[in-house]
Amino acid sequence: MKAEHLKGLFNRYKILALVIAIALIWALFTHLTDGDFLTARNLSNLLRQMAITGMLASGMVFVIISGEIDLSVGSLLGLLGGISAILDVQFHLPLWLNIPIVLIAGALVGAFNGYWVSYLRVPSFIVTLAGLLAFRGILLGITGGVTIAPVSNGLIAVAQSYLPDVAGYALGVLVFGVLAFSTLRSRNKRAEHGLAVPALGLDLARLAVAAVVIFGFFALLDAYRGVPTPVLIVLVLLGAFTVMARRTVFGRRIYAVGGNLEATRLSGVNVQMVKLMVFALMGAMAALAGIATTARLAAGSPSAGSLQELDAIASCIIGGTSMRGGAGTVFGALIGALIMATLDNGMSMLGVDTYWQMIVKGFILLMAVWLDVATSTKR
Questions:
Q1: What is the pTM of this model?
Q2: In angstroms, rounded to a whole number, what is the distance separating the alpha carbons of residues 178 and 211?
Q3: What's the pLDDT score for residue 12?
Q4: CA–CA gap between residue 113 and residue 372 (Å, rounded)
Q5: Which tens digits make up the pLDDT trace of 61-92?
Q6: In 17-53, which positions are buried (b, 16+ CB within 10 angstroms) versus exposed (e)?
Q7: Given this model, what pLDDT does residue 1 score?
Q8: How far apart are CA 99 and CA 76, in angstroms?
Q9: Angle CA(91)–CA(96)–CA(98) in degrees, nearest 5?
């Protein structure tokens, strides 16, 4: 009974545990680097580094929730980033046309993967493993194995520009306002349905802590150069996908498909279309991450996105997404992406060899999966 109680506590406060883990990791790296890790410049770079993995993880979390997996996203990121560079360098397409074309292409490729999985019933592991190889081959073919450069300043700005200070603080106010409105709305809804409403003081305390964290976050970024554009994109994705998951029929169906596929099918839901749409969404996120990668490198690289699918999957699992499907959040996946980026950044600052970095990240992924299994209430 005591073990079951501990499992329940962990599942309820999993995100809090992850936040505490990040704080401890940051404290360790700050100590080992004599304070260099916790500078505004390094944290800004860390968040820009995390943003690309976060874009992939934002899509991957829904794939895993639906009970599937996508191993092709790293290669697809490289392919679509390469296409974006080619459209920019060789065809001189303006940014307002380049980005939609690449996003639509990503969604179509994702839907192609989803069609094989949902309608032709080929396991997603095999379909996306084939994509991992094929997309990388296509990338090498269209680029000739050479870097496509230099890309235009407009494309570079997607990953290397910053919001002005005033805009950053305005965004902070907006984020806090949305959080406060959501809290108030939740209280009213619970009261209308006769459910227990948390003490007002408790909700106010949570909002006070959130206000300190939010405005501290934006103040720290403004201390360097402002909020990086990729971080803004990730924040928008967080808000949009959280609303989709919690407030839309499509979002609820994704969880239902992953939780009990047969029961969902018998209830009249088109589970095949749901899975196809999830893979299409993943493809669009791979396209967005590919554009951001090309902008960050200021070039289309034939090696871009290598092993990036593993970081995306690891971010979701570390962030509490269950490999069995039916459970997970975008916020948790982004926290997981932040942990992965923190490990990369901190160990690089300490001069840790690449092979040790890979060993550490692999061990942490293994422990995250074990913790998910050990604390699961399912049998």
A1: 0.90
A2: 12
A3: 60
A4: 27
A5: 999 999 999 999 999 999 999 999 999 999 99
A6: ebeeeeeebbeebbeeeeeebeeeebbbebbbbbbbb
A7: 46
A8: 15
A9: 40
Contact 65/126 with Cβ under 8 angstroms?
no
Report the pLDDT value the prediction gives residue 366, as an integer from 0 to 100.
Answer: 84
**SS3 category, 64:** helix
Q: Can you read off the two tokens belonging to residue 195? A: 């459910």
Instruction: Give the residue from 76, 144, 82 showing the smallest Cα distance to 285.
Output: 76
Is the bond preceding residue 150 a cis peptide, omega within 30 degrees? yes
State the Cα–Cα distance between residues 306 and 289, nearest whole angstrom.
13
Distance in angstroms (rounded) separating the CA atoms of residues 275 and 279: 6
Tokens 């160990």 locate to 347
Compute CA distances 273 → 182, 249, 254, whole Å: 30, 13, 10
Give tens-digit pLDDT for 327-351.
Answer: 889 988 999 999 999 999 999 999 8
What does the block give as tokens for 152? Answer: 């235009």
pLDDT at 11: 56
DSSP 8-state code for residue 161: -
- Torsions phi, psi for 8 (to 5 deg): -65, -45
Per-residue pLDDT at 285: 97
The separation between CA 47 and the C-alpha centre of its own chain, rounded to angstroms, equals 12
Which DSSP letter does residue 328 get? -
What does the mean pLDDT of the chain come to? 87
Would you state the structure tokens that stand for residue 293, as one six-digit string? 């990668």
CA distance 30 to 59: 31
Contacts of 245 (CB under 8 A, 6+ apart): 62, 251, 252, 254, 255, 329, 330
Tally of CB atoms within 10 A around 373 = 12
- Start-to-end Cα distance in the chain: 16
pLDDT digits over 214-260, tens only?
888 888 888 888 889 999 999 899 989 988 998 899 999 999 998 88
Alpha-carbon gap, residue 210 to 191, rounded angstroms: 23
Residue 379: per-residue pLDDT: 46
State the Cα–Cα distance between residues 213 and 216, nearest whole angstrom. Answer: 5
